[in-house]
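Title: Comparing notes on inverse folding

I've been comparing how different people in this forum approach sequence design from structure. To keep things fair, I'm posting one structure and asking everyone to reply with a full sequence. Here's the target:
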């Protein structure tokens, strides 16, 4: 699925759909993993790939998610 991002860079969901922290990241579910990426200047930049059962919001944003949910 990651290879398809080259032709379809917006096929992943916006990360803002699941967290109220302003960001320009998108994510793509790839089996048990989540690929987090940005589209910049016509390129797809993959920033992280994390196991889906981990607390990926805390890993990516730390305590910011707690502050924005209150």
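Reply #1:
Here's my take.
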């Amino acid at each position: 699925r990651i290879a398809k991002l080259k032709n379809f860079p917006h096929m992943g969901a916006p990360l803002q759909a699941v967290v109220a922290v302003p960001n320009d990241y998108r994510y793509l579910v790839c089996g048990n993993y989540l690929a987090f990426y940005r589209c910049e200047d016509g390129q797809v930049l993959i920033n992280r790939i994390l196991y889906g059962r981990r607390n990926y919001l805390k890993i990516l944003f730390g305590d910011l998610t707690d502050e924005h949910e209150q």
